[in-house]
Specification:
Layout (H helix, E strand, L loop, with lengths): L3 E14 L4 E16 L4 E5 L6 H9 L6 E6 L2 E2 L3 H6 L2 H4 E4 L3 H4 L6 H12 L4 H14 L16 H13 L5 E5 L7 H18 L2 E6 L2 H5 L4 E6 L2 E7 H7 L3 H8 L6 H21 L13 E5 L2 E4 L2 H13 L1
Parallel strand pairs: 3-8, 3-9, 6-7, 7-8
Antiparallel strand pairs: 1-2, 1-4, 4-5, 9-10, 10-12, 11-12
Helix pairs in contact: 5-6, 5-7, 6-7, 7-8, 11-12
Bound molecules: adenosine-5'-triphosphate.
Length: 322
């Protein structure tokens, strides 16, 4: 059974204006997306700034309200407070934010930051709670003497470890990680990512890993969905996306991954320029006249792509011939 299923989710924000503060327009932040995450899986949601990734994550955790669509956890809807309570949803689904500085209360010590979810969801004595917090600090590689320090006394990477310790405190089944490393230096990014993988191996949690960077997601995710203009335009395994991307927007995101190899950099730049030229010339072909992505076509098992009708026809024909 899927751990999380998102079906035709829409989140539209009204824009108010004018003398009477009426709704004058809408932002179609998330506009009909569907995907599912399996237990223990790392699922990546990738797209440029403004494509609707954070809104998706925030809606799944309950910080935004869906305009339409269905979210199910372990096969059950989570629409009402009662349904969420029955599934223990608020304990089972946790979030790690990009900006550890603003997501950690600056007036609280590390001890009470990490203990917060334990207080909400576990019935522990103060002694048990302290032992658990120390265990969690050990898991994330923070020394016990840091227990009484405040967030500003830590580096960015260490603060993100505190956020991770808080997120794993209740042994959740799903962690939504919204750009967890993009505020960190490159060397620290790799450390935190490896460490998130290690935690996954240890506790078997699933990740919804949100990022603008296909380079970062490559090391983390089993399957990846590419999001643009509030819609998912391609979804597939790591291999499908990195070796066989079919949507022009995915190809552009791939070309943007910087090469670590100095010799390759120059040819990479040429490649990026060529992809960008093709993208600018053809991007509108990939959306209908209202800006909607075309229906997804299965180009190989599990690899779904929104393709222009002419392209899509080729794959449908191939399938019929099989
Ligand atoms: N509360 C809100 N009210 C109105 N518009 C919003 C709100 N939250 C997000 N938006 C808009 O919805 C769109 C999608 O935003 P979202 O933050 O989900 O994108 P994103 O892909 O996560 O980008 P970023 O990485 O920059 O956060 C953007 O145009 C954004 O301005």
């Amino acid at each position: 059974m899927n751990l999380l299923t998102v079906n035709d989710l829409k989140v539209h924000f009204p824009i108010r204006g004018g003398f009477f503060n009426r709704v004058v327009d809408k932002v179609y932040a998330v506009d009909g997306i569907s995907f599912s995450i399996e237990p223990g899986e790392s699922f990546g949601l990738v797209g440029e700034s403004g494509s609707g990734k954070s809104t998706t994550g925030r809606t799944i955790i309950g910080l935004e309200k869906a305009t339409a669509g269905k979210i199910e956890f372990e096969g059950h809807p989570i629409d009402t407070k009662h349904e969420r309570e029955k599934l223990n949803y608020d304990k089972e689904v946790q979030m790690i934010f990009q900006d550890s500085f603003s997501s950690l209360n600056p007036r609280k010590r590390v001890e009470s930051i990490i203990a917060e979810p334990l207080k909400n969801f576990e019935n522990l004595t103060p002694e048990q709670e302290k032992i658990r917090v120390l265990q969690l600090m050990k898991i994330v590689g923070l020394a016990p003497e840091m227990l009484y320090k405040y967030p500003h006394q830590f580096s960015g990477g260490q603060r993100q470890r505190i956020g991770i310790a808080r997120a794993v405190a209740t042994n959740p089944k799903l962690i939504i990680a919204d750009e967890p490393v993009s505020a960190l230096d490159l060397s620290v990014q790799a450390q935190v990512l490896n460490f998130m993988k290690q935690i996954q191996r240890e506790i078997g949690v699933s990740y919804l890993f949100i990022s603008h960077d296909l380079g970062v997601v490559r090391h983390m995710c089993d399957r990846i969905a590419i999001m643009n203009r509030g819609q998912i335009v391609e979804i597939g395994t790591r291999n499908d996306i990195y070796r066989n991307a079919k949507h022009i927007y995915t190809q552009r995101l791939l070309a943007a991954i910087p090469s670590t190899n100095l010799e390759k950099r120059a040819s990479n730049l040429e490649h990026r320029k060529a992809v960008e030229k093709a993208y600018q010339a053809h991007k509108d072909d990939y959306y209908d006249e209202t800006g909607k992505a075309y229906p997804m076509v299965e180009v190989s098992p599990g690899h779904l792509v929104s393709l222009p009708p002419k392209e899509a026809l080729k794959y449908k024909q191939l399938k019929e011939d099989d």
